[in-house]
Design a protein that fits this description.
Structural class: mainly beta
Number of strands: 49
Strand order of the largest sheet: 3-10-9-6-7
Distance between the termini: 35 Å
Shape: elongated
Number of helices: 11
Strand content: 35-45%
Length: about 800
């Protein structure tokens, strides 16, 4: 993981790809999370996979993500960085989240079709409660039979295939037996459904007859369903051959002019008219080599009305592969387990993510990478248990034909879609709206500089990552509207910023900065919440109305602006907190609280005129004689301290109980001789005065701690006003830490282990030189078994999916 992060950061500024196509652009994505159920406050680790035209998408850089509650309210939104078709990051479930489910919505810039829907993923939330649940009577299951003719139509006088599917009220397949009955001739054929609830009947339906399906459900209840009447018209079928797929058209009319549209996924292949003749099949061949993995659809229209449609999954027997996996573990408390993974024959490279979770944690086996990438984006109705049905269906084509797919395609486009890495942009704004005068004064200062051959100046932009001890500074130019951009500003997690106006004449004007990271329009898709009932409709909400997010605010024009922090502290306290964090590593530890904290850079007397540190201390510190500790080292002082140094008596006669050896004291005396007291006070942003001070090294009364900026931080051209803000960047990059018990002593002394996720690796990748790979996980204290999940993509775009429970048979 860390190697991946290093590679990502090294190459990030070079990622500027362009994608041009003659049709609308779409990408398919899937998020593999470390587990499917979480507690409020848990961290969700995920890996994202991105496919375009059946292969790994290499021209995407940004995934826009939202977290949605059960009522459709947006909790937060952020953006994850994509490199070479994958991303990996994490986020946190809100600690007080009360719901049973929470939903991820995600999209990419290439989802440019107007009718594209965002990807969604449901996560279950485990609510721990000591209350006894209200007992409810278990409902008696109900069963239904769904019938669908091949091509969507039964033509009289021609052989037709009728697809049958039986489900219970939860959407699970039901095994039933039945027969098809001709009301005049009696029973025609018997049928029985398979383990996925599917069956087919093939016959020639006569126009003067009515037909019925008679069947008994698992409870023994008899049902009768009428079969739709036969008609005159045209129908379409998709027929697989060795290297071809035939779009086969036929009609039972003497002559019929039809319009045929064929596409795969969201990509249109052709759209043209055909003149059909009775008794003659029209075959349109498509080369399999020209088709990516996906759902191929053919739709026939007669005078703009759909008369027939059918679908077929290209390479349905190859699109999903399962690795060979072996798991060995003693399943003792905190014991070691080993998982060995081998790719199927013929597959040499793959990008995988693996997780191992406690067997007691519920998992979702109803959906998978295959169903989320290829089925969900095209489904017009909520898919109920698609992975379960797919695995149980012997004839995969029956499952595909049994669904209702969206047959609209992305419109043709010659536009180039650019998806570069996101960089910070900002706009200077004046509190009183006096920008015109401010900018006029700015131009005056620039023109004055030109007369002295001085270049134009802009603003000082300071930035600091949470993990770094100090700010870095750069100078940025802004335009006539106050807009500026920060070059090379690929940021992760968050960034604390500090903006100072450079020209002295302009520094007394209070201002703010409006930052922009991700374009709000890239979150334009409506919120989508999947429903569980088979007969319920999908719920879509407008995400631009009545929503609030801690990550965003709305401006007067309705644009969403990124802002991750609600500032509740005073500006002074915010600066104290920042400086305390900045200098914490060099401050001697003491139990005393400071009697006075001074921030020279926020002091009006320093803003009005320059002064030395000595002058500032003389006017601000309530003591005539003080001992000074500069950047954690005893350095000198004022009053009696200065006199003691001048007459050679040293610091030890002034600072009581100093625990320094003679060599250290000599070094401190040399430091004292430095003229730091006569330097500009703007170099010293943070002062702390103690009337009584005690630390393991220094003790005394009237002690002043002085902290100095590093040379890169010094603002020698001090301004009266500055603006601080914390802004969010890309979702953070951080390696997941897998628990390791390296010894028996560690297992015995580590206490109760209640981990739910036992192992997570988002970059378990195979290369051509590897026949198999293995990883090691460590059990928790329960050891009742584990769920092992392996998902990913091969280099050829095939889906890798494996999910099994390995039980502890000793318990």
């Amino acid at each position: 993981m860390m190697k991946y992060i290093v590679r990502l950061l090294l190459h990030i500024l070079l990622l500027m790809f362009f994608f041009q196509s003659t049709y609308g652009q779409t990408s398919q994505l899937y998020l593999h999370t470390d587990r499917d159920y979480y507690l409020p406050g848990d961290t969700v680790w995920f890996k994202g996979y991105f496919i375009k035209d059946g292969a790994i998408a290499r021209d995407l850089h940004n995934m826009y993500m939202k977290l949605i509650d059960e009522g459709g309210k947006e909790i937060w939104q952020s953006v994850a960085l994509i490199k070479d078709g994958v991303t990996a990051s994490y986020f946190t479930i809100p600690a007080g989240y009360p719901g049973q489910e929470i939903f991820i919505n995600a999209n990419t810039l290439l989802d440019s079709c107007v009718n594209s829907r965002p990807y969604f993923k449901k996560l279950g939330i485990l609510q721990l409660s000591h209350e006894n649940p209200t007992s409810t009577l278990e409902k008696v299951p109900e069963f239904k039979l769904v019938q669908q003719p091949e091509g969507g139509i039964l033509l009289s006088g021609l052989e037709n295939t009728l697809l049958i599917q039986t489900l219970d009220s939860r959407g699970y397949p039901a095994f039933v037996k039945g027969k098809m009955v001709d009301e005049k001739a009696g029973e025609i054929a018997e049928f029985r459904t398979d383990s996925a609830g599917f069956a087919t009947l093939r016959t020639i339906f006569k126009p003067d007859r009515s037909y019925m399906l008679q069947w008994a459900d698992p409870l023994g209840i008899l049902h009768k369903d009428k079969i739709q009447p036969v008609v005159q018209g045209a129908k379409v079928a998709l027929v697989k051959q060795d290297s071809l797929v035939l779009v086969q058209l036929q009609t039972n009319l003497p002559s019929q002019l039809v319009h045929v549209t064929v596409g795969i996924g969201k990509r249109a292949l052709f759209d043209q008219e055909f003149n059909l003749k009775e008794g003659k099949k029209t075959n349109i061949p498509l080369k399999k080599a020209d088709l990516e993995y996906g759902i191929l659809q053919a739709v026939v229209r007669d005078k703009q009305q759909v008369v027939s449609r059918t679908s077929l999954l290209i390479d349905d027997e190859q699109i999903e592969v399962s690795p060979i996996v072996s798991v060995s573990s003693t399943f003792q408390e905190k014991s070691e387990g080993t998982v060995t993974v081998t790719l199927p024959k013929g597959e040499k490279m793959a990008r995988l993510s693996v997780s191992v979770v406690d067997a007691e944690v519920a998992v979702d086996t109803t959906q998978s990478m295959l169903t989320d990438i290829y089925f969900q984006p095209l489904s017009q109705q909520p898919l109920v248990n698609p992975q379960l049905l797919w695995e149980r269906t012997e004839n995969k084509n029956l499952f595909i034909q049994g669904q209702t797919w969206d047959d609209s395609y992305c419109p043709g486009s010659e536009l180039t879609v650019v998806d570069p890495p996101i960089k910070i942009q900002g706009q200077i704004r004046l509190k009183k709206g006096s920008w015109a005068k401010f900018y006029s004064d700015y131009l005056d200062e620039v023109n004055k500089g030109k007369k002295r051959n001085l270049p134009a100046r802009g603003i000082s932009f300071g930035y600091q990552y949470p993990e770094t001890p100090r700010m870095q500074y750069t100078e940025l130019m802004f335009d006539k509207n106050g807009n500026f951009a920060v070059p090379n500003s690929i940021i992760f997690d968050s960034l604390e910023t500090r903006v100072i106006q450079i020209y002295r004449k302009l520094k007394f004007t209070p201002f703010t900065v409006q930052y922009k990271f991700a374009d709000p329009q890239n979150y334009r898709y409506p919120i989508l919440i999947p429903v569980q009932a088979a007969n319920a409709s999908r719920r879509e909400l407008n995400n631009l109305k009545g929503l609030h997010s801690d990550y965003f605010t709305m401006d007067a024009h309705g644009n969403r602006v990124l802002q991750t922090v609600q500032v509740t502290r005073t500006r002074r306290q915010r600066e104290i907190d920042r400086l305390q964090f900045r200098f914490r590593t060099i401050e001697p530890q003491t139990v005393h609280q400071p009697d006075l904290i001074l921030l020279p850079l926020m002091d009006s007397s320093v803003i009005r005129m320059s002064q030395s540190l000595r002058e500032y201390i003389a006017t601000k510190v309530p003591a005539q004689s003080v001992s000074i500790i500069l950047n954690g080292k005893l350095a000198g002082g004022t009053g009696d301290v200065a006199k003691a140094a001048a007459d050679g008596s040293g610091l030890s006669n002034v600072v009581k109980k100093t625990k320094t050896d003679p060599d250290k004291l000599e070094e401190l005396n040399r430091q004292y001789q430095l003229s730091f007291l006569d330097e500009d006070v703007s170099n010293y942003p943070y002062l702390k005065f103690y009337r009584t001070y005690s630390s393991p090294v220094y003790s005394g009364t009237n002690v002043l701690l002085v902290f100095e900026y590093s040379p890169a931080e010094v603002n020698r051209d001090l301004g009266s006003d500055e603006y601080h803000e914390t802004i969010a960047g890309y979702m953070p990059l951080k390696a997941y830490t897998n628990k390791v018990y390296s010894s028996t002593a560690m297992r015995l002394s580590s206490g109760l282990d209640t981990r739910l996720t036992l192992y997570w690796d988002p970059f378990f990748d195979f290369n051509q030189a590897e026949q198999s790979k293995e990883f090691v996980f460590y059990n928790n204290s329960r050891n009742k078994g584990v769920w092992v999940t392996i998902q990913g993509l091969t280099e050829t775009g095939k889906v890798v999916y494996y999910r099994r429970m390995i039980k502890n048979n000793k318990k």
